[in-house]
User: What shape does this take?
Amino acid sequence: MSERPDFSAFPDARGHFGPYGGCFVSETLMGALDDLKAMYERLKDDPQFRADFDYDLAHYVGRPSPLYLAERWSKQLGGAKIWLKREDLNHTGAHKVNNTIGQALLAKHMGKPRVIAETGAGQHGVATATVAARLGLKCQVYMGAEDVERQKLNVYRMKLLGAEVIPVTSGSKTLKDAMNEAMRDWVTNVDDTFYIIGTVAGPHPYPQLVRDFQCIIGREAREQSLKQAGQLPDALVACVGGGSNAIGLFHPFLNDESVAMYGVEAAGDGIETGRHAAPLSAGRPGVLHGNRTYLMEDDNGQIIETHSVSAGLDYPGVGPEHAWLKDLGRVQYVAADDTEALAAFRELTQVEGIMPALESSHALAYASKLAQTMSPEQNIVVNLSGRGDKDILTVAAIDGIEF
Amino acid sequence: MSRIESCFARLSENNRKALIPYVTAGDSSKDVTVPLMHAMVEAGADIIELGVPFSDPMADGPVIQLACERALAHGTSTRDVLAMVKQFRETNNDTPVVLMGYLNPVEVMGYETFAKAAAEAGVDGVLLVDLPPEEALEVKPVMAAAGLDLIFLVAPTTSDERIKLIGEAGSGYLYYVSLKGVTGSATLNVEEVAGRVETIRNLAKLPIGVGFGIKDAESAQAVSRVADGVVVGSALVNQVKEHQNDPAAINQAISDILSAMRTAMDT
Assistant: This one.
C-alpha cells in the first residue's frame, strides 16, 4: 500500500478505476453518455452550477446533516465513541436525495423533460420522484415486483409525488432487473429522457458524478469531526449495496492515511449459505450494467440471485470504485447478516431513539463489533444513510405482526 | 479469406443480399438448436447469428429475454453453445456462424480460452452487444489471433466520427441497429434506414447488415434493397416459443418465414 495513487485523480478519462469501471453499453447509448460526460465536465466546476447545487442542498435537503455522538450506545458497548452522520434527517429520509438533486440539475441543463430511475428499497425512487415533482419533470420509476411488494409505503409515496411506478417481473424481480428495464427504457427514449441512476454503478460517467454529488457527506463529516471531536476519525463505517453512501463518506478521507474504512455488505442468511448480497466478500470481477466490477455470478458468467432483508442492498454488483479500493486494500470490505442487522436496528432504536434503515443497520452492526475492539479515546463515524420508517412493515412481519 | 468475407463476396457476385437469422442457442431445448440451424440454411439463410444466453440481456426486448430464460432454465452454457456449433460444422463447412451475446459469459471463460474454443468449434465471428470498440482493445487482438471477426453495432444515434472508429475496429460486417430501442421493437422506417446506410457506406468499408424491426418478407425485401444483409431475430424466436415442445413444428415455422423472405429478397 506504499504506492497509493492520488484518489482524487480517478476515474481516468474513459471512466476506469484501475481495471474496473468503463462504459459497457450497447452502441445506441454511447452518444447519450458522451453528451452527459461533456455536460458534466462543463458544469462540474462551473460556479453557478455549484451554487445552485449547494443552495438546494442547504434549503431543500436541509444540509449540513448533523454529526451526532451516540453517547449512550457507545458507553454501553464500552469501546470507541460512535458518531452518526445523520443522512436520515435529509428531506425524503436518506442520502439518495443528494444525488437526485445533482442529476436533476443536469437533466434541466440538458433540456430533458422526462426522467427515469431504478429503485430497490424505494428511497432512490422517492428521491427521484421528489425532485421531478419540484422541477415539473415527467417521472417513471422501475422497481422489481418483489420490492414493490415489500416496500409498499415507498411505492405509494412515489405515486403521491406524481411518479409512475412500473413493477418489473423479469428475472429475480429485484433491483438488478429494475436496472435492466430502466436501461431498456433509456435506449428506446434516449432523445427526451434522462436516466437518474441511484448508485455509483452503471456506465461512465455515472459512478463519477454520483460519487461527486454524494461526497458532500464526507466533506461535512470531515469538517464536523475536526470541530466536534478535535481530530479526524480513526475509522469510517458504511453499508455497501451499490455503494453510493459509502463512497460519499469515504472519498474525502481517502488521502488521509490514518483513517481506516470499512464497507459493510449484506451477508443475508450468511456468506456460507450462498444466500447473500456480498459481491466484494464472495464474488469475482465481471461486467454488468455498463461497468466492470465484482459480481455475484456462477461459473458460466450468469448473474445469480441475491438475498438480503434490506431491499436497498439486494444487488449482485457494486460500484467499480469500491472494487478498486478493495484490490488496493484502502478499504476493508466486511459483511453483516440479516440477524445482526435486525439486532442493530432494534438496539439503536431503543438506546438512542433513532430508527435506522435496514441498509444502514448493517453498518451499525459492524460498527458495534468494531467499537468494542477500540478504546474510548478513539472515534468511529458511521454513515446513518437512511431512516427506518420505510422498513417498519418488514420488521413487523418478522415479529409476526400484521397491519 | 474468412467464411464471412467469402460469403459476402459470393453474394455480391450474384447480386444477392445476405439473409441472417438469429435464434437463441438452447431455446427451447439443447436438442432443438443444431437441426434448426440446418433447417435455416436449407430455407435460405446465408449467415447464422446464434445467441449465447445471458441472465441479464439489457439490450433485448421481452421476446429474447424469455428465450434466454428458457435456455438457461435447462442450463445452456457457453460451452454448450460451442458444442452445438461444432456439431453443426460436422455437416456444414460453408455457412458462417456468428455468436451474439453479452461480454460477461465470455469474460468469465477468459478471452484466450474462449477464442481458442470458439475457433476450434468453427465459429466465425463474435458480436458482444455491451462491448463498444473503446472497451474492446484487449479482447480484439485475442479474437483476431484466433481468426474470429469481432462485429460491432452501429446505431441511429452513432456520430459520423464514431462510425469511422467502429468501421476500423470491426471486421466481418457492421450490424446497423435500425431503431432506438430493444430487439423486437416497433416497425422500422425504411427510408430513414436507407439514408443512414448510405452514410455508413461512405464512412466505413465493411458490408452492412441491418437488424431490429424486420418481421416479414415485405420488410426483409425493403431492407435488402439498401443493405448488404438482413437480420431477423425476434420474429423467429416467437416461433420457437409458440411451438416449444415440438422441434419439427419450430423448424417448419421458421423455415416458412425465411423462405418467404428469401424469395422476396431475390425478386
